[in-house]
Predict the structure of AB hydrolase-1 domain-containing protein.
Amino acid sequence: MLVYITKKSGSGPPLLLLHGNGETHELFAEITTKLSRHRTVYAIDSRNHGQSTKNVATSYQAMCDDVAAFIAVLQLEDVTILGFSDGAIIGLLLGLAQQPQLKQLLLLGLNLTPADFKPAVRALLQLEYRQTNDPLIQLMLEEPQIELEQLTTMTIPTLIVAGENDVCEPVFFEQVTAVLPNAQLLVLPGETHSSYIEHTDRLYPNLLPYLR
């Protein structure tokens, strides 16, 4: 079972917020109020996170299927996905599945495979997994396995967002954007993987053109 919150101000098409690994919908607590000025916001806890079902098998495809089922059950149309990190992977998988209800993707801090991480980032994840045996860390070390060539057929409008000092090298985000048929890249100067998520004033103004 997925647990989610809804924040609606006036009217607007649905905007689904998908958090990163080990986080909850509270990641977006600050920005949700502002986003709800333009969209009907649904902030979801992924499986094995927050208040959603625990101790179930976890893969990015399973989490993608959860969100697809969520969209179907609520009969949502013209959906925008705003996904951060793991949430960006889930959003991309939804786009690759050509979900007809999707309107656009806003993908923040994306990676296609664990090999895309900078070596120092991979080393830290490997150390953390050895110390904790956390299946969510294991997930990041083993998945996803998306080929760059798979992106060539995904025509949904997509915004790729990255921090200048993200967990992947800048050239990775440039390659992803170049391969996608209908994508733009936004690199936020001086930001890390998550710093711009935590500081709404750095992210929200850059999203506005895609929410109007």
In short: The radius of gyration is 16 Å. The first strand starts at residue 3 and ends at 7. The chain has one domain: 3-205. Residues 114 and 141 are 6 Å apart (CA to CA).
